[in-house]
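Hi R.,

Here's the chain you asked about this morning:
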Amino acid sequence: MYVRQIHPCCFARIQALMGQPARATILVVDDDPGLREAIHLILDDGYEVIDAVDGEQALATLASRKIDLVLLDLVMAHGDGFEVLEHRREEDKAVPIIVLSALNTAWTAAAAMRLGAVDYVTKPFDEDSLRELIRETLTPLTGPPAQMRLPSIRMPSVLLVGLDLGMYASLTVLLRQQCRVVREETMIDALSSPGSPSASVLVADLATLGLQGTAMLPRLRAHFPHAGFVAINASGAHSASSAPCTVLEAPARVTTLLAAIRGHLATSGLASRQYSPRVGSVLDHLGVHYADASVRRLGRAVGASPDHLSLRFREETGLPLKVYMTELRIEVAKWLLLVAGETIETVAARIGLHDASHLSKLFVQYAGTRPGAYRRSIVPTS
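And here is the predicted structure, written out as tokens:
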């Protein structure tokens, strides 16, 4: 009975003095007491397991004691796991986090991994598999970190020509698990782009490209003989080649473009995803108004309370609404930094942030580096 009253840190020192290896400490963050009890039953024999019932308690625990690994739920009654991933101190980011979530979508997993999770496990989970994953995560690695050891898969690419930055950012975030999205402003840019011949789908907004763009359409389609083609506001778009073609009315909308692109990619499961009218309206709205959007304004625009709208958005897309809006801004910022060569201050203003410092902070959180370092790492020096 007396041993139970010893502080865990002192107990670890006693173990070391007695020649026993100190047990790793695992923090379980979940508001479900049944799940926490189950984790204790699975792990107590091999690890020191402590609990937190919400994100605030988890962050306080990380700041007050040594934690070796975190098992983190994403959806909790008070706050969510994404807040833990986003608001960790710099010194806490070395602590590996495994997400345990009932949300089983590629979008949610990708967002968690981008924010620093090393792995993503869906509920209900296999006990033996969870033990093995924890053991591997706590074993010192000699290679790259777990989140960098993903299989190398050649993804199809979608080339957007003449579409605005909000549309490009929306498609980049929503399709990033299925394809790579590239944006060129003009037909000439598209024809001279080094990676353009490998495009699987070509999307051209002839409403913005004007008469010159329409005149160059046959040449562009000949450059992509096997690519699916989506033309916006294009009469006679079918005539340039025999490749499949979808014609959409202007102005382009995120939801209609998503459906058209997924149809051409013909990848298993993509074409079946449907959004409710309210969430679809949010996606379409943010494709245009990403720079000045807020959850409250979106709620007014679609006639829903901010809390209800956020819940529905996360259920249907797998991403928290605030995270999605920030990712749109970051994708626009990346394009402006790399292709347009804008200054960091100008980029911050264009995407609706207060200043360059605000942009830099968000860029580190979502892209893993500062804007200037990102530009230098991508653009080759002469």
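One quick note: Residues 1-20, 141-153, 236-242, 267-271 have pLDDT under 50 and may be disordered.

Cheers,
M.
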